[in-house]
Design a protein that fits this description.
With about 140 residues, the protein is mostly helical. The chain has a domain of about 70 residues: Fumarase/aspartase (C-terminal domain) (Ribonucleotide Reductase Protein R1, domain 1, Orthogonal Bundle). The protein is built from ten helices and no strands. The longest helix has 23 residues. It is extended.
């Protein structure tokens, strides 16, 4: 619009107070996280136990995402919702219920399905990011 060229550089000047508050909140959050992280104790066995207690339902989004390219968003979400319900009702692992489902088998081969439920693949780049963070902290 032509009037924008005839005025100041934009509305950004009015955002300075909000921006200052946003940075202050970010600094406070970082300080709180640093304080929490100092006392953090990792209990890998308990973490695994908690993960196992979910019957792999925590992987439902990964399963839906893996199915998405082959069958589309709506159908993949419907299938995964049905499988999650079945997993809960039967008390079975989601990976076993998914492996027995014809819709899943048609879209994913055994290796692809195995990758969906692989905890180390689910971590993505988290281990590398943590190593980098801890190495920078230690220097």
């Amino acid at each position: 619009m032509p009037q924008e060229h005839e005025r100041g550089l934009g509305g950004w000047q009015s955002e300075w107070p909000s921006l200052k508050e946003l940075f202050a909140a970010g600094i406070d959050a970082s300080d709180a996280l640093a304080e929490i992280a100092e006392g953090l104790e990792v209990d890998a066995e308990r973490m695994r136990s908690n993960l196992d207690a979910t019957n792999e339902i925590v992987f439902s989004e990964r399963l839906s995402t893996a199915l998405l390219p082959q069958i589309g968003r709506v159908e993949s979400q419907e299938i995964v919702a049905r499988l999650v319900t079945q997993s809960i009702e039967q008390g079975q692992l989601l990976s076993l219920v998914a492996a027995e489902d014809a819709s899943v088998s048609a879209a994913l081969d055994a290796d692809e399905l195995k990758n969906v439920f692989d905890i180390f693949k689910a971590l993505g780049s988290s281990p590398e990011l943590m190593d980098r963070l801890l190495n920078e902290e230690g220097s």
